[in-house]
Amino acid sequence: MHFHQSSFLTALVAAAASIAPALAGEHLPILPNPADLPALQFDGTASYRQFRANDTTALPFNISTYVTSKNFTTTDGVGMYGWNLLFTGNAYNPSRPLLVVMGSSVSRSHDVSDPVDVMNYGLGETWSYRIRTRSPYVQAILSDAGIGVLNIVSPWCYNTTTKSPLRNACLDSKSRHWFRHYRPDNVIEILNQVQSTFGFDPEKLVGSGTSMGARGILRTGTAYPHFKAISIVGGNLETAPTIGEVCFDLNTLTSNPKQACKNPVGNDLDLAYRLASTKVQIYASYGDNVANVTTRVVPTCNAINNATAAPPPTSAPTTTQPTSNATCQIRMEYTPRAKGQLGPVHELLCGYSFDPVDLNWLISGYGGEPVRFATS
Known about the structure:
The structure is a single chain. By secondary structure, this protein is an alpha/beta fold. Helix content is about 25%, strand content about 15%. It is built from nine helices and twelve strands. The strands form two sheets. Strands 1-2-3-4-6-5-9-10-11-12 form a ten-stranded mixed sheet, with helices on both faces. Helix 7 links the parallel strand 11 (about 280-285) and strand 12. The relative contact order is 0.13. It comes from Tilletia horrida.
Protein backbone atom coordinates (compact mmCIF):
# COMPACT_ATOMS: atom_id res chain seq x y z
CA MET A 1 0.00 0.00 0.00
CA HIS A 2 1.46 3.30 -1.04
CA PHE A 3 0.95 6.40 1.07
CA HIS A 4 0.42 9.85 -0.42
CA GLN A 5 0.38 12.88 1.87
CA SER A 6 -2.14 15.68 1.58
CA SER A 7 -1.72 18.37 -1.06
CA PHE A 8 -1.43 20.92 1.75
CA LEU A 9 1.55 19.10 3.26
CA THR A 10 3.07 18.60 -0.18
CA ALA A 11 2.91 22.33 -0.82
CA LEU A 12 4.54 23.09 2.49
CA VAL A 13 7.37 20.66 1.86
CA ALA A 14 7.91 21.96 -1.67
CA ALA A 15 8.23 25.48 -0.32
CA ALA A 16 10.80 24.34 2.23
CA ALA A 17 12.70 21.91 0.01
CA SER A 18 15.47 24.34 -0.87
CA ILE A 19 16.08 25.26 2.76
CA ALA A 20 18.30 23.02 4.88
CA PRO A 21 16.42 21.94 8.02
CA ALA A 22 17.72 23.92 10.99
CA LEU A 23 17.67 23.05 14.66
CA ALA A 24 14.04 24.04 15.05
CA GLY A 25 13.21 21.69 12.16
CA GLU A 26 10.10 21.91 10.02
CA HIS A 27 8.66 18.90 11.83
CA LEU A 28 5.89 18.65 9.28
CA PRO A 29 4.10 15.48 10.34
CA ILE A 30 4.69 12.49 8.13
CA LEU A 31 1.11 11.59 9.00
CA PRO A 32 -1.12 14.68 9.25
CA ASN A 33 -3.98 12.24 9.83
CA PRO A 34 -2.93 9.14 11.82
CA ALA A 35 -5.82 7.26 10.23
CA ASP A 36 -3.80 7.32 7.00
CA LEU A 37 -1.13 5.04 8.46
CA PRO A 38 -0.13 2.63 5.67
CA ALA A 39 -0.86 -1.05 6.08
CA LEU A 40 1.71 -3.05 8.01
CA GLN A 41 3.66 -5.44 5.79
CA PHE A 42 5.70 -8.49 6.82
CA ASP A 43 8.38 -10.10 4.66
CA GLY A 44 9.07 -13.12 6.87
CA THR A 45 11.61 -11.46 9.14
CA ALA A 46 10.31 -8.03 10.15
CA SER A 47 7.32 -5.72 9.87
CA TYR A 48 7.40 -2.37 8.09
CA ARG A 49 5.27 0.21 6.32
CA GLN A 50 5.93 1.69 2.89
CA PHE A 51 5.97 5.44 2.35
CA ARG A 52 6.94 7.66 -0.56
CA ALA A 53 9.20 10.69 -0.67
CA ASN A 54 7.14 13.85 -0.64
CA ASP A 55 8.16 15.21 -4.03
CA THR A 56 7.01 14.74 -7.61
CA THR A 57 9.11 11.59 -8.15
CA ALA A 58 7.77 10.02 -4.94
CA LEU A 59 10.20 7.11 -4.66
CA PRO A 60 9.08 4.46 -2.17
CA PHE A 61 10.97 3.48 0.96
CA ASN A 62 10.20 1.40 4.04
CA ILE A 63 10.02 2.35 7.70
CA SER A 64 10.08 -0.07 10.62
CA THR A 65 9.08 1.76 13.80
CA TYR A 66 9.60 0.55 17.35
CA VAL A 67 8.15 2.21 20.43
CA THR A 68 9.27 2.15 24.05
CA SER A 69 9.28 -1.27 25.67
CA LYS A 70 6.62 -1.82 28.33
CA ASN A 71 9.36 -3.46 30.38
CA PHE A 72 12.07 -0.82 29.98
CA THR A 73 14.56 -0.61 32.83
CA THR A 74 13.40 2.03 35.30
CA THR A 75 16.89 2.54 36.71
CA ASP A 76 18.81 3.48 33.55
CA GLY A 77 16.10 3.58 30.87
CA VAL A 78 17.35 0.75 28.64
CA GLY A 79 14.46 -0.10 26.31
CA MET A 80 12.84 3.32 26.78
CA TYR A 81 13.73 4.90 23.41
CA GLY A 82 11.71 4.69 20.25
CA TRP A 83 13.41 4.25 16.89
CA ASN A 84 12.85 4.02 13.15
CA LEU A 85 14.79 2.06 10.53
CA LEU A 86 14.55 3.40 6.97
CA PHE A 87 15.52 1.01 4.18
CA THR A 88 14.71 -0.40 0.75
CA GLY A 89 14.87 -4.01 -0.38
CA ASN A 90 14.71 -6.94 2.02
CA ALA A 91 14.13 -6.14 5.67
CA TYR A 92 16.87 -8.56 6.72
CA ASN A 93 20.23 -7.84 5.12
CA PRO A 94 23.38 -8.66 7.13
CA SER A 95 25.60 -6.92 4.55
CA ARG A 96 23.76 -3.59 4.83
CA PRO A 97 25.79 -0.54 5.96
CA LEU A 98 24.11 1.28 8.84
CA LEU A 99 23.92 5.02 9.49
CA VAL A 100 22.90 5.84 13.07
CA VAL A 101 21.25 9.26 13.30
CA MET A 102 20.60 11.29 16.46
CA GLY A 103 18.56 14.46 16.15
CA SER A 104 18.61 17.67 18.14
CA SER A 105 16.62 18.27 21.33
CA VAL A 106 13.51 19.18 19.32
CA SER A 107 13.41 15.66 17.88
CA ARG A 108 12.49 14.24 21.29
CA SER A 109 9.10 12.53 21.25
CA HIS A 110 6.11 13.61 23.33
CA ASP A 111 4.85 10.02 23.40
CA VAL A 112 7.40 7.26 22.72
CA SER A 113 4.61 4.68 23.09
CA ASP A 114 2.89 5.99 19.93
CA PRO A 115 4.38 4.84 16.59
CA VAL A 116 3.03 7.90 14.77
CA ASP A 117 4.72 10.24 17.25
CA VAL A 118 7.99 8.29 17.00
CA MET A 119 7.84 8.55 13.20
CA ASN A 120 6.91 12.23 13.18
CA TYR A 121 9.76 13.25 15.46
CA GLY A 122 12.29 10.75 14.17
CA LEU A 123 11.83 11.94 10.60
CA GLY A 124 11.54 15.64 11.44
CA GLU A 125 15.13 16.65 10.66
CA THR A 126 18.61 15.48 9.55
CA TRP A 127 19.14 12.68 7.01
CA SER A 128 15.73 11.16 7.74
CA TYR A 129 14.00 14.41 6.81
CA ARG A 130 15.93 14.59 3.55
CA ILE A 131 14.87 11.04 2.69
CA ARG A 132 11.18 11.61 3.41
CA THR A 133 11.09 14.79 1.30
CA ARG A 134 13.57 14.19 -1.56
CA SER A 135 13.60 11.19 -3.86
CA PRO A 136 17.30 11.68 -4.81
CA TYR A 137 18.14 10.95 -1.16
CA VAL A 138 16.00 7.80 -1.21
CA GLN A 139 17.78 6.62 -4.34
CA ALA A 140 21.34 7.52 -3.33
CA ILE A 141 21.29 6.54 0.35
CA LEU A 142 18.84 3.68 0.65
CA SER A 143 19.04 2.13 -2.83
CA ASP A 144 22.41 2.90 -4.45
CA ALA A 145 24.52 2.85 -1.28
CA GLY A 146 22.22 0.25 0.27
CA ILE A 147 22.43 1.98 3.64
CA GLY A 148 19.90 1.49 6.41
CA VAL A 149 19.20 4.69 8.34
CA LEU A 150 18.48 4.18 12.03
CA ASN A 151 17.14 7.24 13.83
CA ILE A 152 17.00 7.15 17.61
CA VAL A 153 14.06 8.89 19.31
CA SER A 154 14.41 9.96 22.93
CA PRO A 155 11.52 11.03 25.16
CA TRP A 156 11.51 14.54 26.56
CA CYS A 157 11.46 13.58 30.21
CA TYR A 158 10.61 10.98 32.84
CA ASN A 159 8.25 11.07 35.82
CA THR A 160 10.16 9.70 38.78
CA THR A 161 6.93 8.92 40.67
CA THR A 162 4.73 7.30 38.02
CA LYS A 163 7.70 5.85 36.09
CA SER A 164 6.36 7.27 32.82
CA PRO A 165 8.45 8.69 29.92
CA LEU A 166 5.46 10.46 28.33
CA ARG A 167 5.82 14.22 28.31
CA ASN A 168 2.34 15.00 29.63
CA ALA A 169 3.16 12.81 32.65
CA CYS A 170 6.33 14.66 33.65
CA LEU A 171 5.55 18.36 33.53
CA ASP A 172 5.57 18.65 37.32
CA SER A 173 9.08 19.76 38.29
CA LYS A 174 8.78 17.96 41.65
CA SER A 175 8.97 14.58 39.89
CA ARG A 176 10.70 15.38 36.61
CA HIS A 177 13.93 14.15 35.08
CA TRP A 178 14.69 16.04 31.86
CA PHE A 179 16.58 14.19 29.11
CA ARG A 180 19.39 16.32 27.70
CA HIS A 181 21.76 13.51 26.70
CA TYR A 182 21.44 10.38 24.61
CA ARG A 183 22.30 7.33 26.68
CA PRO A 184 24.89 4.98 25.13
CA ASP A 185 23.53 1.89 26.92
CA ASN A 186 20.09 2.50 25.39
CA VAL A 187 21.55 3.01 21.91
CA ILE A 188 23.73 -0.11 22.13
CA GLU A 189 20.68 -2.15 23.13
CA ILE A 190 18.90 -0.86 20.01
CA LEU A 191 21.91 -1.69 17.82
CA ASN A 192 21.82 -5.25 19.14
CA GLN A 193 18.12 -5.46 18.33
CA VAL A 194 18.65 -4.08 14.81
CA GLN A 195 21.49 -6.54 14.25
CA SER A 196 19.29 -9.46 15.30
CA THR A 197 16.11 -8.47 13.44
CA PHE A 198 17.36 -6.63 10.35
CA GLY A 199 21.08 -7.32 10.18
CA PHE A 200 23.85 -4.90 9.28
CA ASP A 201 27.56 -5.12 8.56
CA PRO A 202 29.39 -4.04 11.75
CA GLU A 203 32.36 -3.09 9.58
CA LYS A 204 30.17 -0.52 7.81
CA LEU A 205 28.78 1.39 10.78
CA VAL A 206 28.72 5.20 10.65
CA GLY A 207 27.01 7.92 12.68
CA SER A 208 25.58 11.42 12.42
CA GLY A 209 24.28 13.85 15.03
CA THR A 210 22.91 17.35 15.45
CA SER A 211 23.34 19.47 18.60
CA MET A 212 22.13 17.20 21.44
CA GLY A 213 22.49 14.35 18.95
CA ALA A 214 26.02 15.46 18.05
CA ARG A 215 27.04 15.11 21.66
CA GLY A 216 25.10 11.86 21.81
CA ILE A 217 26.73 10.11 18.84
CA LEU A 218 30.21 11.08 20.04
CA ARG A 219 29.45 9.82 23.55
CA THR A 220 28.06 6.61 22.06
CA GLY A 221 31.22 6.26 19.99
CA THR A 222 33.32 6.33 23.16
CA ALA A 223 31.19 3.53 24.65
CA TYR A 224 30.85 1.53 21.41
CA PRO A 225 34.10 2.16 19.50
CA HIS A 226 33.07 0.47 16.26
CA PHE A 227 31.98 3.47 14.18
CA LYS A 228 34.07 3.94 11.06
CA ALA A 229 33.07 7.58 10.63
CA ILE A 230 31.02 10.15 12.54
CA SER A 231 29.79 13.46 11.11
CA ILE A 232 28.26 16.00 13.48
CA VAL A 233 27.12 19.60 13.61
CA GLY A 234 26.83 21.90 16.62
CA GLY A 235 28.32 19.54 19.19
CA ASN A 236 31.43 18.24 20.91
CA LEU A 237 32.82 15.90 23.54
CA GLU A 238 32.02 17.28 26.96
CA THR A 239 34.11 18.38 29.90
CA ALA A 240 31.36 19.85 32.08
CA PRO A 241 27.95 18.34 31.21
CA THR A 242 25.92 20.69 33.39
CA ILE A 243 23.16 21.61 30.98
CA GLY A 244 20.20 20.18 32.86
CA GLU A 245 20.90 16.47 33.28
CA VAL A 246 23.99 15.62 35.30
CA CYS A 247 22.95 12.07 36.20
CA PHE A 248 21.81 9.13 34.07
CA ASP A 249 19.87 7.58 36.98
CA LEU A 250 16.19 7.94 36.15
CA ASN A 251 15.15 8.40 39.76
CA THR A 252 17.11 11.65 40.09
CA LEU A 253 15.37 15.01 39.79
CA THR A 254 16.53 17.72 37.42
CA SER A 255 15.58 20.25 40.09
CA ASN A 256 18.04 18.71 42.57
CA PRO A 257 21.44 18.29 40.86
CA LYS A 258 23.25 17.75 44.18
CA GLN A 259 21.47 14.50 45.05
CA ALA A 260 23.35 11.20 45.17
CA CYS A 261 24.08 9.77 41.72
CA LYS A 262 25.39 6.29 40.94
CA ASN A 263 25.75 6.95 37.20
CA PRO A 264 26.84 10.55 36.48
CA VAL A 265 26.81 11.85 32.91
CA GLY A 266 30.54 12.44 33.28
CA ASN A 267 33.38 13.93 31.28
CA ASP A 268 33.72 12.14 27.95
CA LEU A 269 36.53 14.33 26.59
CA ASP A 270 38.83 12.05 28.59
CA LEU A 271 37.45 9.12 26.56
CA ALA A 272 38.50 10.60 23.21
CA TYR A 273 41.14 7.87 22.85
CA ARG A 274 38.30 5.43 22.14
CA LEU A 275 37.62 7.34 18.91
CA ALA A 276 41.20 6.97 17.69
CA SER A 277 40.10 4.66 14.84
CA THR A 278 37.04 6.72 13.86
CA LYS A 279 37.04 9.45 11.23
CA VAL A 280 35.26 12.49 12.66
CA GLN A 281 34.12 15.73 11.06
CA ILE A 282 32.53 18.56 13.01
CA TYR A 283 30.63 21.44 11.40
CA ALA A 284 31.22 24.54 13.49
CA SER A 285 30.72 28.30 13.46
CA TYR A 286 32.17 31.22 15.38
CA GLY A 287 28.58 32.41 15.69
CA ASP A 288 27.55 29.26 17.58
CA ASN A 289 27.17 30.00 21.29
CA VAL A 290 26.31 26.38 22.14
CA ALA A 291 29.25 24.44 20.70
CA ASN A 292 31.90 27.14 21.06
CA VAL A 293 34.68 26.67 18.51
CA THR A 294 37.59 27.64 20.76
CA THR A 295 36.57 26.10 24.07
CA ARG A 296 34.66 23.01 22.91
CA VAL A 297 35.04 22.03 19.26
CA VAL A 298 38.79 22.48 18.80
CA PRO A 299 39.62 20.70 22.09
CA THR A 300 37.38 17.83 20.98
CA CYS A 301 39.19 17.38 17.68
CA ASN A 302 42.60 17.73 19.26
CA ALA A 303 41.77 15.16 21.93
CA ILE A 304 40.72 12.69 19.23
CA ASN A 305 43.75 13.44 17.06
CA ASN A 306 46.11 13.03 20.01
CA ALA A 307 44.44 9.79 21.07
CA THR A 308 46.42 6.61 21.63
CA ALA A 309 45.44 3.14 22.78
CA ALA A 310 45.47 4.30 26.40
CA PRO A 311 43.95 7.30 28.20
CA PRO A 312 46.06 10.46 27.83
CA PRO A 313 47.49 12.15 30.91
CA THR A 314 45.22 14.77 32.42
CA SER A 315 46.06 18.19 31.03
CA ALA A 316 44.38 21.36 29.88
CA PRO A 317 42.83 21.00 26.40
CA THR A 318 44.73 22.61 23.56
CA THR A 319 43.04 25.17 21.32
CA THR A 320 45.13 24.86 18.15
CA GLN A 321 43.21 23.93 14.99
CA PRO A 322 43.86 20.34 13.75
CA THR A 323 45.97 19.77 10.64
CA SER A 324 44.35 18.98 7.29
CA ASN A 325 45.23 15.26 7.41
CA ALA A 326 44.08 14.68 10.99
CA THR A 327 41.53 12.02 11.98
CA CYS A 328 39.15 14.70 13.26
CA GLN A 329 38.42 17.64 10.96
CA ILE A 330 36.55 20.89 11.62
CA ARG A 331 34.34 22.26 8.83
CA MET A 332 33.99 25.97 9.53
CA GLU A 333 30.89 27.71 8.19
CA TYR A 334 30.61 31.49 7.85
CA THR A 335 27.18 31.98 6.25
CA PRO A 336 24.35 32.77 6.67
CA ARG A 337 25.03 35.36 9.31
CA ALA A 338 23.60 38.64 10.48
CA LYS A 339 25.56 41.88 10.49
CA GLY A 340 28.21 41.81 13.18
CA GLN A 341 28.18 38.03 13.56
CA LEU A 342 31.18 35.84 12.77
CA GLY A 343 29.11 32.98 11.40
CA PRO A 344 25.70 31.28 11.57
CA VAL A 345 24.08 30.98 14.97
CA HIS A 346 23.46 27.51 16.39
CA GLU A 347 19.99 27.08 14.88
CA LEU A 348 21.18 27.97 11.36
CA LEU A 349 24.42 26.02 11.63
CA CYS A 350 22.43 22.87 12.38
CA GLY A 351 21.13 22.82 8.81
CA TYR A 352 24.60 21.76 7.63
CA SER A 353 26.15 18.27 7.31
CA PHE A 354 23.40 16.53 5.31
CA ASP A 355 24.55 17.11 1.74
CA PRO A 356 25.81 14.58 -0.85
CA VAL A 357 29.43 15.38 0.01
CA ASP A 358 28.72 14.48 3.64
CA LEU A 359 27.15 11.15 2.72
CA ASN A 360 30.13 10.21 0.57
CA TRP A 361 32.48 11.31 3.35
CA LEU A 362 30.69 8.87 5.69
CA ILE A 363 30.80 6.11 3.07
CA SER A 364 34.54 6.63 2.67
CA GLY A 365 34.90 5.76 6.36
CA TYR A 366 34.27 2.11 5.57
CA GLY A 367 35.90 2.17 2.15
CA GLY A 368 32.67 2.24 0.15
CA GLU A 369 32.21 3.61 -3.34
CA PRO A 370 30.80 7.15 -3.59
CA VAL A 371 27.27 7.56 -4.90
CA ARG A 372 25.80 10.19 -7.19
CA PHE A 373 22.69 12.22 -6.43
CA ALA A 374 20.19 13.01 -9.15
CA THR A 375 19.20 16.66 -9.46
CA SER A 376 16.21 17.24 -7.18
